[in-house]
Specification:
alpha/beta, two-stranded antiparallel sheet, RNaseH_sf, DNA binding, coiled coil, Homeodomain-like_sf
Amino acid sequence: MIEELIKNIRLSSSGRKLLTSQQKAFIVENWESSGLSCPEYCRRHGLITSQVYNWRSNAKSGAIMSIKNQGDLHTKAELELLRKENEELKKALGESTLDIKILKKKVGNGSTTKQEIESLAGEFRVSINRTIKTLGVAKSTIYYKPKKYPARKRTARKPLCEQMKAAILELTAKKSTYGIPRVKALLKRDYGLTVTQYMVHRYMKEEGLLITRHRTRGSSRPHTGQIAVKASNTRWASDITSIKCWNGEKLLVAFVMDCCDRSIIAWKAGKHMQAVDIELMVQEALHSRFRENLPALGQLQFLHDNGPEFVVKNLKASLKSWNIVDCNTPTYSPQSNGMCEALNGTFKRDYVYESCLDNAQSVLN
């Protein structure tokens, strides 16, 4: 009988034996009546000893069935409690379903007023929050009352006077490369007109006088040094730039700049530029700043690039005799003398290219 029972046992997908609670109780009863020990009985019928012991202990405690045939047995008291909870859940679900049907039928699509929701809550003896959740109505539509604020008065933009407009047009006609900050400063300095930067920007934008942003891509080589200094007469920078005239002539301009206040101490211009001209320019700068005296040893630096006019031995010897430290920039690194390069670009953009460049003499004049 036992062999036939075990042979016909249904197996799970993983090969596990699936026994009902009645089959487990029958196996335990047959083992107890056989008079064999549990290991001997399990060895004969191909069972597991620990499972048979577990089935016997559950049978003694009053277990009668297995949930989902997974081997977990429950007592009569536990099953009775589960049945009671299941009945309560069914009852609550039925009441909720009935309430929803009644409320939906009563209200329609869920759009209602606060008075109707309060009457529904009183009729079915439920809270207003539960009624709102059941209907799917936003709580803000019931409790929130929007406050009407007075309309905000929009202030009209104050237009520029005709005098300011004429002054702006006159300045931009003379210097087309001047932007908003320069125009605003010149209005205050030359015309005595005080105006905000935003009003200047608005008028220049209306007239199409704004400068288009243009930035040339520089060298990718990083520049980690610092050219500017905190005290005056501690570092001078010099450079030579060229101005090409309309008739093909080329004018060279050299200057000496203070790296503290960026003022031009001395300058020279001509068709040709040699080391002697640079030496005379440095002498003029020394006389302008130190008069008959010389700077202290190591006090003043002279920064320049590696142009042929600056690397002459006579010029280096003269700088050394004047207690000036000769400093040259690294090769292929114009950004190391960036203060002079920036002055060259600004000078040409705002003044040179806005003037008459017929020939070299007219530019000098």
